[in-house]
Amino acid sequence: MDENTLKKLKEKCREMLKEDVEVIIVYTRKESEPKEILTVIESPDEIEKITLSPLSANNPAKHLIHELKNRSGKIGVVAKGCDSRAIKQLINEGKIDRERVHIIGISCPGIIDYRKLITKFKPSEVKKVTLSGDTVLVQTVNDEQRIPLDKLIYENCLYCTHPTPQEYDSLLGEVREGRRDFSDIEELEKMSQEERWNYWIGELEKCIRCFACRNACPFCYCTECLVDPTDLAISPMSPAEEKASYPRFLGKTVNAQDNLFYHLLRVIHHAGRCVGCGECERACPMDIPLRKLERKLEKEVIEVFGYIPDGDVPFLARLDILPEKETTSGR
Amino acid sequence: MSESCDRSNQLDQFEPKIIAFACNWCSYAGADLAGTSRIQYSPNVRIIRVMCSGMVNPAMILYAFRKGADGVVVAGCHPGDCHYNVGNYYAKKRIVLLKEMLDFIGFESDRLKLLWASAAEGKKFAEEMIDFVEKIRRLGPQKKMLSIPYRI
After folding, report:
1. A-B contacts at Cβ under 8 angstroms
2. Residues 173-232 in A contacting B (C-alpha not used; CB under 8 Å)
């Protein structure tokens, strides 16, 4: 993600736009704060806007589905390791047509947690953030600071299994090795039942149920959601009694138990599908460790069922991997 | 001990509420067989008939807990015997994962049980239910998931 890769990326984009690719989904700098957003570029004039830095966090998979629906041509997309996993999973689920996508894979050293960055710097003063080796160079209005990447890295990136994309058409950057590590989950499992309950209730009490985690997740693409009764048809003619008796698992109230209900359901729908991009956690305004729930599920899928995520056959379609006992943990 | 005194003792005792989702083709018929063969089992169990154990959404189980159930049983056909071929395989995947997740967040996952009972196993159904009710009785009332904010 250094300057060199960015130069190569710009060249690649210029080439692609000359050829058969209609638009490319890339990262560009936001004007008011040191954040990067996903942008769709259509012409070679816009190529100079492209950025690629440790702040290029968001997952373009959701935008890709949207653009594929609205356009007829081929679409290029810049994808880090987790993004390419998401795209691959969506291809397996029939949401993305592989023929119409050109994936520019970026080998990713890990991205910066924006929340950690703004505790050290004033957002309005940060001019540019670049990476060279393991050091983050932050250029502010007055001076330039060097900070090790470990101090700013997004926690989720520490447990990345494949920092280098597995599914790509062209790859930029050197190949990196990842590994599966569940040490943080094991730490939580060592706590007693009451401690765990208090920990989770304490965390989930903060949830305001804005459903940002659901909207940001590339795999929550259902048009109608179980926890969202407003999608059901209500006409001016429907009587109050009918409206009141609509199936509704979850009320409008926000309390810890209802939040728990929602988060458990949301997580269970991602069994064997979650690719670990961390978009849910990044979207959460209340800073709830949602990835811990997802990672626990991933751990169980691997340990109890022996299913390795990112497989070609979806987890739910595999009927040959049932565990012998009801649970194997014996707890 | 007079009869009235005996009854007041019973009222003080905790009576668990158990919701059992029984599949239409095997477990419900099994429960029916238990009834027709006059096998007695605990009256704490409320059976809800569903078409297949595979349609029991984790939301339905959590909803039952939310509304004050002390235990939930999901009963279906033996693996390979499902009327819809694979419904119970899906059920098993869901329940196992839900149990693990419930355990992770600190809820007693023993309150949820997955049971295979065929239409001929009336006796087994009754015995398993008696066992489960005893287990829940030992665990005590379920308070964690109730609407009232609950902290230990």
Report:
1. 103
2. 188-189, 193-201, 226
Q: What is the mean pLDDT of chain A?
A: 87
pTM of the model: 0.88
pLDDT of res. B13: 80
Around A236, how many Cα atoms within 13 Å sit in the side-chain half-sphere? 0
Locate the domains of chain B by residue range: 16-139
Pick the CATH number of B16-139 from 3.10.100, 1.10.10, 1.10.150, 3.40.50: 3.40.50
| A60-83 per-residue burial string, b: 16 or more CB within 10 A, e: under 16 | bbbbbeebbeeeeebbbbbbbbbb
Between helix A256-268 and helix A193-204 the angle, nearest 10°, is: 100
**Inter-chain CB proximity B109 and A327 less than 8 Å:** yes
- Which among A197, A261, A267 is the nearest to B106, CB-wise? A197
Residue A188 token pair: 């939580």
CB-closest option in B62, B97, B152 to A300: B97
Angstrom distance (rounded) from CA A298 to CA A276: 9
Question: In Å, how far is A120's CA from the nearest CA of chain B?
Answer: 33
Q: Report helix, strand or coil for A324.
A: coil
- Measured between alpha carbons, how far is residue A204 from residues A179, B66, B106 in Å? 29, 16, 13
Contact call for B106 and A323, based on CB within 8 A = no
Q: Tell me how far apart the alpha carbons of residues A225 and B101 are, in angstroms, rounded to a whole number.
A: 21
Q: pLDDT digits over A62-110, tens only? A: 999 999 999 999 999 999 999 999 999 999 888 999 999 999 999 988 8
Q: What whole-number distance in Å separates Cα of residue A156 and Cα of residue A289?
A: 10
